[in-house]
């Protein structure tokens, strides 16, 4: 996976627009599907205390969620969503690395060269995501880890390692 440059202002603006559009579309679809299910399948309510359309409304919400997932899956590579999709992919890779971080650090202590590449990529992209998401609470820890790794590898080697990462490197851990 290659590191891409992301304009923070554009990213935040597009993410906010996408989030608002998603919430509005999801709510509308849930209402439409729920109403449609009630109109098609529900019996007239005689006793409101014993009868409910909850299951039809729940079905509408589930169908709306499935519909939104299919829509997002079909448009995720659209130019407008490029930065959002890139950050989402980074967060998935971060999760994969984080789950194996103890094993990766143990292998690093043994001198495994691939761990330097993985950790350089992990910390550099984690810093990028934290800056994009305004996560100022833990970015100092990431900067400390980057500095430690740069001290160990040297600045030039660190920069080379950042760009050598491949997802399949994680399979060894």
TrEMBL record:
<feature type="transmembrane region" description="Helical">
    <location>
        <begin position="20"/>
        <end position="42"/>
    </location>
</feature>
<protein>
    <submittedName>
        <fullName>DUF3087 domain-containing protein</fullName>
    </submittedName>
</protein>
<keyword id="KW-0472">Membrane</keyword>
<dbReference type="Pfam" id="PF11286">
    <property type="entry name" value="DUF3087"/>
</dbReference>
<feature type="transmembrane region" description="Helical">
    <location>
        <begin position="54"/>
        <end position="72"/>
    </location>
</feature>
<feature type="coiled-coil region">
    <location>
        <begin position="132"/>
        <end position="159"/>
    </location>
</feature>
<keyword id="KW-0175">Coiled coil</keyword>
<dbReference type="InterPro" id="IPR021438">
    <property type="entry name" value="DUF3087"/>
</dbReference>
<keyword id="KW-0812">Transmembrane</keyword>
<keyword id="KW-1133">Transmembrane helix</keyword>
